Amino acid sequence: MQKPFLGFGLGLRTDHFQDVLDRAPTVDWFEVISENFMVAGGKPKFYLHAIRERYPLVMHGVSMSIGSADPLNMDYLSNLKALINEVQPEWVSDHLCWTGMQKMNSHDLLPLPYTDDVIQHLIERIKFVQDYLGRQILIENVSSYLTFSESHLTEWDFLNIIAEEADCNILLDINNIYVSARNHGFKAEQYIDAMNPNRIWQIHLAGHSDYGQYVIDTHDHDISEAVWELYQYTAKKIGPVSTMIERDDHIPPLGELVTELDKARLLTAPLWHPQPHLVCV
Amino acid sequence: MSSDALAELQKHFLAYLQGSDQVQFSDYILTQGEISDEQRLAIYRNAYRIRLKDVILVDHPVLSAYIGDIWFDKMTDEYINIHPSQYYSLRQFADHLPQYLNHHAPFLDHPQIGELARFERLLLTAFDAADAERATTEELSTLSPTLWPSLTLRFHPSVQLFQSEWNVPLIWKAIKNEQDPPIAIKEKCHWLIWRNTERLTEFHRIDDVSLTLFENFNQGYDLAYNCEQILALMIEDDVSSRVVSDLLGWLSNGLIHALIHEQKPASSNLLPV
Fold first, then answer.
1. What is the ipTM of this complex?
2. A276 confidence band (pLDDT: 50, 70, 90)
3. Domain with CATH 3.90.930.50 in chain B
4. What's the pLDDT score for residue B22?
5. Nearest residue of chain A to residue B46 (CA atoms)
6. pLDDT value for B100
7. Residues of A in contact with B32 (CB under 8 A)
């Protein structure tokens, strides 16, 4: 199987819809939040289609709740499938977490206990989703602030086993690794070293809020130097991977994000020799 | 960890997020480093409430400005407790807000507040309603006079009728324009809300005649029936020009999706089979 390399992308945000069309920024691709476009029509759908005509898109979901003890929400999956058919994204991702149960949605990416039983639970569900959608999905590591007493595996082992057994790919969030490493006291590089490069199809970069004792994944700041260093370390270790910046709050003008994205290009240029569009893995 | 144990843990986690301390949820987590268990859990509890409050603020910017920070905090805190999200999209989270405001103190003593929330939710509905073609004034002007009596309409999916006992659209407009809102006045009125061809949401006040026409057309009644209905509201000589004027206004503003008319078969001597 060949891993596509899309280049360097941005999260598509409402604030930038018109700018993207007017200025055609030097961005190789955009990532859209799936749920934001599960509406009937109007501006969101207009811009989605207009931008899709000009750029490759990937879809990133926040509500699959793949780790919930509840049955999968088939209404959600049906709408996701319809949106996939409409957008024809390069790929689709969601998070290694749960968001709710018993009809309540927290709209947060809540952590899971890292146990063998939970691994089996996730494998079955990811396989079902992939079968239902008729495509592989990418699963993203989330930032976390607590560890369950029941956990007996590291997050990286948990993630690697699931990706192998469910035959899904990984969206590796470098900022989330940094945040969790600070909050739990592990070495971020150890996490990166343990990952299977073949499964990593996408990288997220983002900013966080540093409270000294702990760090929160807020996506409302520029990317910190520490995260840039970890990204460079990852880029060297795993080779070319489609990379994008997520910004969800205090959203700056589009030009500033494009400049920040250029830093990712510059940092990886010496590491990733000129690549053909497809990288054999 | 069995699936029952996972379900139990998740149920208790959600209860903790919602403010319940019935179960000592910190018993589920590992004590690590210098961050206390309570601090770790509080990050999730705080994030849960902040995220949902932000959704209400984004969906209801004018309502939030109208009631001020203290009432906004009271409203959102209580609403989050009473109506936890049951949706996979945050778009629907505040759907019950008008109902909440109409039934809970101190808001129920100021009915314009609930109306303002309902008005903003209808604006949202118009904003992302389904797309559809728009009929044109030319289609109407070229319609054969013999087809007019049987003419029916399909409104654009974004069109919403807002009926209010208070002057809330005027309050909304003033705050939106960063002006002092007018005093709330009890004033029964009807407004049409829709998304125009530039994908911008508009609203327009309508009188009783236009309301009758809108409601009848929306229920599928034809033009002939509509003319009969508004005879009770105006003098006969004005009926035709008024109906045409409303139709042309709705067409030019993009409120009508389709003009529907049945081509009656030409008379013939053939008997039906």
1. 0.93
2. very low
3. 110-262
4. 82
5. A108
6. 98
7. 147, 184-185
Q: Could you give the residue ranges of the DSSP H alpha helices within chain B?
A: 3-17, 37-59, 61-82, 97-103, 111-127, 137-141, 168-176, 208-218, 223-230, 236-252
Q: How far is B204 from chain A (nearest CA, A)?
A: 19
Q: Give the CATH architecture of domain B110-262.
A: Alpha-Beta Complex (3.90)
Report the top-level CATH class of A2-280: alpha beta
Q: Across the interface, which of A35, A118, A145 has its CB nearest the CB of B40? A: A145
Q: Which of A38, A107, A147 sits opposite B30 (nearest CB)?
A: A147
Contacts of A85 (CB under 8 A, 6+ apart): none
Picking from B7, B40, B87, the nearest residue to A105 by CB comes out as: B87
pLDDT of residue B127: 97
CA-based nearest distance A63→chain B, Å: 6
| Chain A contact probe: residue of B1, B95, B200 with most A CBs at under 10 A | B1
Which residues on A lie below 8 Å from B33 (Cβ)? 184-185
Best residue of B2, B3, B6 to probe chain A, by most A CBs closer than 10 Å: B6
Along the 273 residues of chain B, how does pLDDT read in single tens digits? Answer: 788 999 999 999 999 999 988 889 999 999 998 899 999 999 999 999 999 999 999 999 999 999 999 999 999 999 999 999 999 999 999 999 999 999 999 999 999 999 999 999 999 999 999 999 999 999 999 999 999 999 999 999 999 999 999 999 999 999 999 999 999 999 999 999 999 999 999 999 999 999 999 999 999 999 999 999 999 888 888 899 999 999 999 999 999 999 998 765 444 334 333
Contact A145 B131 (CB under 8 A): no
Contact list in A for residue B128 (CB cut-off 8 A) is 39-45
- Determine whether the interchain pair A105/B34 forms a contact, defined as Cβ–Cβ distance below 8 Å: no
Residue A60, sorted as left (phi over 0), alpha (psi -120 to 50) or beta, turns out to be beta
Q: How far is A8 from chain B (nearest CA, A)?
A: 28
A with B: how many residue pairs have Cβ under 8 Å apart? 138
| B13, B32, B88 ranked by CB distance to A110: nearest | B13
Instruction: Report the distance separating Cα A158 and Cα A161, nearest Å.
Output: 5
Give A39's contacts (C-beta < 8 A, 6+ positions apart): A45, B91, B128
